[in-house]
Specification:
Number of helices: 2
Distance between the termini: 33 Å
Helix content: over 70%
Radius of gyration: 14 Å
Shape: elongated
Order of helices and strands: HH
Largest sheet: none
């Protein structure tokens, strides 16, 4: 995953990854790779939001 990815780009990529996983024609190896990609994207988004929340709390 790109380090310079924005939150919006990560969310879009996560949505696309989930859609691919939901495709019943995905073989097991590809599904596992997509799952790993999705987990990484979800973690990126979660970390991003946690960082922003912490920043907001520090500025109050």
């Amino acid at each position: 995953m790109e380090e310079k990815m924005t939150y919006e780009q990560a969310m879009k990529a996560l949505e696309e990854t989930v859609a691919q996983l939901e495709n019943s024609n995905t073989d097991m190896d590809k599904a596992f790779a997509l799952y790993e990609k999705g987990v990484a994207l979800a973690k990126f988004c979660e970390d991003y939001l946690s960082e922003k929340e912490k920043s907001l709390e520090e500025n109050q």
